[in-house]
Specification:
By secondary structure, this protein is α/β, with parallel strands linked by helices. It is built from 23 helices and eight strands.
Amino acid sequence: MTGTFHFLSPWWLAGLLLCPLLLWAGRAGSSAWYRIMSPAFARVLVTGERSRRNGWLAVAWALGMLALAGPSWQKAQPSGLSLQSNVMVILQQDSAMLAQDIPPSRHQQMQRKLQQLVEALPGSRTGLVVYRSRAFLTVPLTDDPAFFNLFLNAQTPEQLPEGDGSGLQAAVQLANNSFPRNSTVPHSLILVADNLTAQDARWLSEHEGELPLQVWVPGTAAGGRLPEAFAADTGTTRLNVARFTQLKSAGIPVTLVSHDNDDVNAVVRQVQHSVTQQQNSRSDMHWLNSGYWLVIPFLLVLLAGRRQWFLAVLVSVSFSGFSPQASASGWLDAWVSPDMQGQMAFNHGDYASAAQHYQDPLRRGIALYMAQDYNAALSAFREAPPGPDMLVWQGNTCAQLKQWQQALNRYDEALSLRPGWHLALANRAKIAAIVLQLRKQERDRQAEQDGDQNFDPDAIKHDLDKEQGVEQQLSQPTTVAAPQLSQWYDRLDISPAGLLENLYHAAPEEAQ
């Protein structure tokens, strides 16, 4: 937060120069009593009251100038765009994860907590990488919690082949490479580990700031008992507190597992903080003016300073345009901006009302799109400043209007501004498939009529039903299933645990 805090209108800060003048005016002793009393007697009777009141006025003035300067530390999200992220979990699978100091065991406890983590991040995609001496991609990024939990619960430390050395560095690199390239969706890495070598701790500290990484530590400093099958394991189950303290000192967030949900909430907050930081680095979003938060302390200071006359003027001005015949919305306009009223209506699903309030063309177009007024939405998008988000929304709207070629053109323009954007690529692929299907249907029908195989693409007359148009929103990016997903679903006659055994032992050189 401190790295992005700034003022949107810093010239208002020049008004703070008047604060010393207000304080000096209160202590100037301008009261007439000073001219007819001795100084010592006057100080006892009248000194302080005017000074205190002018002190409150100086504080109120300073708060007002700070509010007008527009303090900001995060960017405003456009309507329909939520704080999503791609999250890769890196799970250590050594024998110490079977220790029972966190019942029933560290591994089983983390399985439960990772399920809670996925539930606490709706709309995000989650993947899983496990490692011991080598690293394996167990679950590619998916937005299906049931699929993620299926293989998470089938995972056990005994499945991974033993070997020398640590596979942590390979696991971090494998997880980082699993994120879509050139994607604007924020991403996070969560390392779940109960043991770090000195080399691993040093490597993570050196790469602090390069990777959006946090560490989640299961276990206790005293360690725990291992199952009888692993009783001969010579390794220690005690946490090396100094190693994790070293990571925290280097700036990497470290969260110790707890018996309640405090650790899950802390990890979620860190993911959200990372998402906000990455969104703030985008140039196509506007900074959010948070100066309105200073209105409450401003009014409290005026009350404390007994400036009732100022409050009376403020209330009178606010209600000067109010009459019994005036609508409630007219009174609301005096306090809440049209865009904020539009956002409230949008959040309640009243998209038509939201479109009437929004002044931002992009937001108004999104509200009209959600209200299924596609012609008006297209007009609003054309008024918005050019940008990849606007072009994608234009493409979506053209698709709803069955303007297939125009939709493809808008997606191509968006990709020229943001190459490799998976949202535009997925929507373009969907429309291209529709166009190909239409052309094939037209060719088949003409072939049945006269056997003529020649086909003019511009002569397409037949459209799909309304339900077959694009209903894509920026808050729900279209994802194309990874090859691993389709392969695993096709082989579900084998248990998930059996699939993982094959993955870890059949071709380990390809999984690293």
